[in-house]
Amino acid sequence: MPPVPVVIGVDVGNTRLSTALIDAAGNILHLWREATPAEEGANAVIPLLIQMIRQAQDYAQGQRNQSPAGVGIGFGGPIDHITGLIRRSHHVAGWDGVALGELLQEASGLPAFLENDANAGGLGEALFGAGQGADSLLYVNIGTGIGGAVIINSRIHRGAHSNAGEIGHVVIDPWQGPICTCGKRGCLEALASGPALGTAARRRLQEETNTHSALTALPAHEVTGSTVGEAAQQGDHLALEIVQKAAEYLGLALAGVANVLDPELIVIGGGVSELGDLLLEPTRQAFQGYAALPVAASTPIVTAQLGYDAGVVGAAAVALVELEAT
Amino acid sequence: MPPVPVVIGVDVGNTRLSTALIDAAGNILHLWREATPAEEGANAVIPLLIQMIRQAQDYAQGQRNQSPAGVGIGFGGPIDHITGLIRRSHHVAGWDGVALGELLQEASGLPAFLENDANAGGLGEALFGAGQGADSLLYVNIGTGIGGAVIINSRIHRGAHSNAGEIGHVVIDPWQGPICTCGKRGCLEALASGPALGTAARRRLQEETNTHSALTALPAHEVTGSTVGEAAQQGDHLALEIVQKAAEYLGLALAGVANVLDPELIVIGGGVSELGDLLLEPTRQAFQGYAALPVAASTPIVTAQLGYDAGVVGAAAVALVELEAT
């Protein structure tokens, strides 16, 4: 009996690099992690990635007497699936136009597949996480930014310009919304990402000097998405209001997308999703108020299941799907 | 050589019923049209449809010595593709829960396929209209209401609850927008449909008694989508402002959907689209301001090409696709 195929999942994040040997059922057999040498740029990251992939190859050979079938790479930034190039990285210099898939394919001798990390994360959830058994889902990753993925027939829907899933820059409130890092006013990312929670809290604290929030004890630069989230979890009224307001915008955005895409379910991942029902309950309420009836009544909104390992499992899922298809 | 297959396209509208004999290249060979006996309800419409389909069968037999391969039916209201039932009609009584496809299949002895008219229209444009050659498109029909369709890989994307494409009830401005017929505030349909143009104009005329618009000469009930459209085409400033404002909302809605779906192009059909570039130029400008860069730069927004015949050609397209698939 031939061994269950294994692949290498690679997650290229702005703060950490992860590789893992993963089997065709999505199980992590072994995982390696390194800090991203972000300040040294892509020229330092690429050799480190090659070394980490070799480590995984050696492990597979030594422990399982098996060669991995391929490498899936999730990259934290926009890529062009048609040309196979990285479009840009917002945080690490030197990535623009790099053909990372090709580079890692040559270095490892294995077929390698490049995907942006939101698409990889969505596919991972669809195959091995919260979306198992669903044909289609909308995945939204809420952290420092907001990314997303559209999964249809258990495959990534990439769209005509490799842009599908970009829910973070859907403009929700162009009239009163805050300016987004992308320059537009009122993008979902400017209303509901981690940094948006911090910004909203700092503004409220400045305006309402009288508030009883525990956040008043913090210096302004420590009022961030995570401290607001922690305060909300401890029942702080101001922090709860801010999370609820973000959830309303999120519910409005999800309702609009779901009306047109009509996915089987919606999966919310990323750091901010760790707030769980504190975020998701008001999101569901807003969603039900804004979505068309058949969608509002029967589209579950659930938290992602792969958590911290979503990156490597998602990248492995990309490789598994591509290898099956080729 | 076997003859080119022909199918019967059936368009069940609220004001008119159309059937046509259509070949596999989307050409209309013959067309029949009747007024919808709307006041008598579905019980009067169904026998008339059966009679019109027989007429098309007889014509195919007599003129071409050929039996049509199937019947495609576009229905002007929500249908449930999974159960094959009509969900409801907003304008004609007695349709709720009717299995129209089955009924017409039994009566004609031909395989029959039921679809809502927006999906049929979108597929028609993709195969035989403005979307020829495109793999994916977003179709939006702007008339009394706003419907839409998502076409991916040249097939209708129906979604998990047969609701995909429902862009008319995407909530765009829940804060200041007008109440929609569906009960929600600020749906696209309440901001950019034909009736929405009329409502906006009547409000402006009431507020601004001093305006020089030609619309002031009309009694209020004649200030409608079509008279506003006509006035705009003649350069009337108030009417132009109203069309431009509607176009801005449309561009905002299209940008949000396109960010997530990333279609190859966007096709605008329906009565209001007859305004052409008067509507589409400000729509494109708003779209480019609101969409993410790769989408904003390379997603054409064009008018539908099938015009008055979109209903029957779209319905025929549904039958042609389904017959190929079975």
Summarize the structure in short:
With 326 residues, chain A is α/β, with parallel strands linked by helices. Chain A is 41% helix and 18% strand.
| The CATH architecture of the largest domain in chain A | 2-Layer Sandwich
SSE order of chain A, as H and E? EEEHEEEHEHEEEHHHHEHHEH
How many DSSP E strands of chain A?
Answer: 12
Number of helices of chain A: 10
Structural class of chain A: alpha/beta
Our estimate of the beta-strand percent of chain A is 15-25%
The average pLDDT score of chain A comes to: 94
- Unreliable sequence segments of chain A: none
Q: Rg of chain A to the nearest angstrom?
A: 20 Å
Biggest pleated-sheet summary of chain A: 5 strands, mixed
| Through-space gap between termini of chain A | 22 Å
- Widest sheet: strand ordering of chain A: 3-2-1-4-7
Q: Using the coordinates shown, work out and report the CATH topology of the largest domain in chain A.
A: Nucleotidyltransferase, domain 5
| Overall tally of structural domains of chain A | 2
Assembly level = homodimer
CATH class term of the largest domain in chain A:
Alpha Beta
Shape verdict of chain A: globular
CATH superfamily of the largest domain in chain A: ATPase, nucleotide binding domain
What is the share of helical residues of chain A? 40-55%
Q: If interface size is counted as residues with C-beta under 8 Å from the partner's C-beta, which chains form the largest one? A: A-B, 46 and 46 residues
